[in-house]
Amino acid sequence: MDTKNIYPIAGILILIIGGLIYFWLNMPDKTAENVVGTIAEKIDYSDNTSTGTPSNTAASDTSSEVYEVSYSDTGFSPKTITIKAGDTIKFTNNSSGTKMWVASDPHPAHTDYSETPRDTHCPDTAENAFDQCSDGKAYSFTFDKIGTWEYHNHLLAADRGEVIVTQ
Ligand SMILES: [Cu+2]
Description:
This protein is α/β, with parallel strands linked by helices. The chain folds into two domains: 3-42; 66-166, Cupredoxins -  blue copper proteins (Immunoglobulin-like), CATH 2.60.40. It is 21% helix and 28% strand. It has three helices and eight strands. The chain is globular and about 105 Å long. Residues 28-50 have low confidence and may be disordered. It binds copper (II) ion. The site of copper (II) ion (CU) has 7 residues, from loops.
């Protein structure tokens, strides 16, 4: 082989090797940490069995959730909500003027959830009676008892809802 031909061939090889090194260095980062982060971002929480929307969707906190139920001129929404024991529901009065007093059925005794009548468990300082015990703009209650708990607005008892608490 003529030695004069070696130089252009060597130059082409250097370009090819240099190009390969360039692409290798610029490949997308596929480290384990990066892949885990990508998967965590793609977890879809929309298959939650509740018809409500958890307001704390942090991936690190799956032990208990806070759900929102809105009270408006058309009543409670969602009317039926399924949660797990230990979850909290925050009822908020968004009506145009109706006062809200959330309470366990039956009206007017409110005995279903707490098994005590209203005049015994109100004011509910222990926060275990599922009875707001007075009207107010918002009421948060943590459900520890498994079951189907029907409730109403004590000040407009035709407005009703249902909380299903599962394990
Ligand atoms: Cu009532």
